[in-house]
Every structure is written in structure tokens, then in C-alpha cells.
Amino acid sequence: MLDLDADALDALLARAAASVVAELEATSGGPVFASAPSAARLHALLDGPLPRDGEPLDAVMDACDAVLASGRRTAPPFFGYVQSPATPVGVVGDLLASAADQNVTSWRSAPAAVHVERLALRWLGQLVGFDDHAAGLMVSGGSAANLTALLTAIRTRAPDDADRRDLVVYVSEEAHFSVAKAAAALGVAVRRVPVDGAWRLDVSALADAIAADARAGRRPLCAVASAGTTSTGAVDPLDRTAEVAREHGLWFHVDGAYGAPAAAVPAQRARFAGIERADSLVIDAHKWLYAPVDCSALLVHDVTVTARAFGDVAGDYVRVVGAEDDEAFAFWDHGLELSRRFRALKLWMTLRCYGARRLTEAIAHDIAMADHLGAFVRRSADFELLSPPSLSICTFRHVPAAMPEDALDRHNERLLAAVQRDGRVYVSNAVVRGHLALRACVTNYRTGPADVERTVDVLRELGTALAREPGG
Questions:
Q1: From CA 370, how far away is CA 398, in angstroms rounded?
Q2: CATH second-level architecture of 103-341?
């Protein structure tokens, strides 16, 4: 009833392949937006009543092409968020995973897919120096991974009858908001710990906060360190944080959703000392390992901790019988999801096709491009660096001649909106030392020095025009 005949299927796949090639070419060269994003234009292009009868495939594919052309491309001058472009291999992996449509719940349901996921997780642990025998599971993104980690912490570090309102999770002031969001969803308290002059968790302040909460009758539960904050790229002192967590019996979680892949770069490895001491670690392969969204991993050293958190709650109809060891494995015993897509295939293919060495070189290249941006900004009289490049992030602001200090935040806010509408290049924003910053994050293996310099040139062009406007 819903199948296509062979000729129609061949034509559809050929058309889809052409669209994929067009998207890869657009992403390779830019611009970020082919035309200025507009809600009104999208309404005019796409809105209509529910289709009662099918449309010709060519018409549907034409509409798909129009949707893709109206979207944001992760092009070489896209520095806005932490999202790497998908490699062609990763794109094919995602396509094949959709075609296979495996529901990766348990070995008995999807034996090869489960095996591939567990292998890919082990490879990730080896890549970043976490654990050569790492385990865990893949989830949609860092938010889901952090939620899973905190729930694991609750169920392995707190008594079953503990009042969750007394449980405390410790994060730095620069930690990603998904950690606080996860804590709120689980009903536990969050204590924000100050940072040092390099935007890293102040470990002495952490120890003081834990001791103060314990004296007040609260239950310190989990210390969260960032292996690459999304605002400035800071890496918290992981080794020292691990020591404090161990001293007080806390679960130690590292949010490396963005930055952890940089631990594979020899020149960066020392910054991640202690990552192997984390009880859990999150890595988003779609952030800095060039895999398509969604592809996030929560790593642990031993699956017994996640089994303790999530096992023994499955319904009888999914209970695995008559199997032992690997063949009895079920991801529902280790996380929140039951239905799970085959996220690991694109990562497994990426790791196999490119290898750790080439991927590490790509990450090192991105770091070098952020350093190039920082140097270029330093040499520009009309720009000011607000934080030095760290990992692949650089923050700065436009400082037109004679513009008073109290007008700069508003000016850069207007400039940010202008550049995002312009579409040629793309940056986002952060607050650094109380100032609004233009934030550039390089996670694109295609980005070169010319893309970096052109981004500053476009910002200068738009910023200068804004400064000349009445009241600018």
C-alpha cells in the first residue's frame, strides 16, 4: 500500500542523493544562510492545509530542497554554536541507520546494533583517555546525558529514602545550563561555585561549599566539572576536583560534551589530567567529532552503576530470558529510553573511516584557527579580545573609535543581530567579565584562515555601518 515500485524508488533515491550532494557542497562553501532568515517567508513557502491526497514525489522533493535551502548551513564561517559539520561518511551512516530502522533496546532485539554501540563507546573512552574499557550508552545530546548522569549519582550515592531537596549538586558559575536544568527536573539543589581568573572552577571554593552544606545538614551528592565550557572554552581542574569529590564521597561527573575530544590532541592532553578519575563523562560526537546530530555518549567505567540506577524496573514483557552475558544485555537497564535509534552507526563508521589520528588532527586544526582568530583580533585596532582563545573558542567585541564604554554592550548586541541576519558569517554571544561578547567557536575541519579573517571583516563592515547610524 505504501511501497514504491522499483523505478520510483530508484528515482527517489537518485533525487535524494543529488540533494545530499547539494547540501554537502553548500556546507563546504557557504554562506551560512542563502538568504536572510524570515518567518514570514517560511509561512508563505510552506504553510497549507493537511494534504488529503498524496503529491507527486518530484513536488515533495522540490519542497524539501526549498526547506534545506532556507536553513542554516554549518559552513566554514559558522562560528555560532558548538556543532561540527557532518562528514560525508557520517551522513551516509545516518541514512543507513534510518533505512535499517533498528530499535536498539537490547541484544535480542538488535544484536549487531547493540554490539556496534558498545564498541563505539569503548573506542570513545580510549580516544580521550577516560577508560580503555569504557561502557555506557548513547543518547540524544548533552542535556540527556547530564540528566542520566545525575540520576545515576542519586541512585548510587544517596540512600533510597533520601529527601532529594537536601541533595546538592555542585557546578561552576560557567557550567552549561543543562546541568542545572537536569537537577531541577530531578528535584535536587544546585550550588554554583565561583571560578578563578581563567573561568575555571575554584576547587578551594568547592571544598568550602561542600563542607558548609554538610554542616548545615544537607547531603552533598555530585561535583560536576566542565571539560570545555561553552562560553570561553575553559577546562576545570579535573584532577583536583576528583580529589575533593573522592574525599567527600561525591559522584564526580565531567561534562565534556563540547571539549572532551580535545583530550586526544597531544598538545592539549595535560589540560585534561584527571579525566580518567570521573565516575561519568559526556561527549557529544556531533559537537566536535564531526558526526550528524544526534550523537551523544555517556561513558562510565562499569555498567553496574547504571544497572543499579535503571535496572529492575522493566516490565515483564521485555524481560530477557534464556540468555547470558552479552546476549542478555539491554540498554533499558542503563538509561531512561526504551525506544532508541541506531545513533552509533554514524560514529562507528566515522571512527573506522577516518581513524583517531585524522580526527585528532582535525580537532587540532580547529584549535589553531581559534588561535589565529585571537591573533587577528589583537592586531585589529577596532576590536578587543575579551577572553584569550581556549580550545576552539574566542570571545571579543567591536570597539568603534570614540564610542563610550557604556554604549559598547548595546552596540555589540545590535551587531550580533545584524550579522546573524546578514547570513554570510555567523557568531553567537556570551557575557565575559560583565560585557557582552561576540563569541566564535571553531568546530569545522573545513575552516581556514581566510574564513576567520573574513568573519572579522564582515563584523567590521556591519559594525561600522551601525556606529554611523543616528544614535548608533
A1: 17
A2: 3-Layer(aba) Sandwich (3.40)
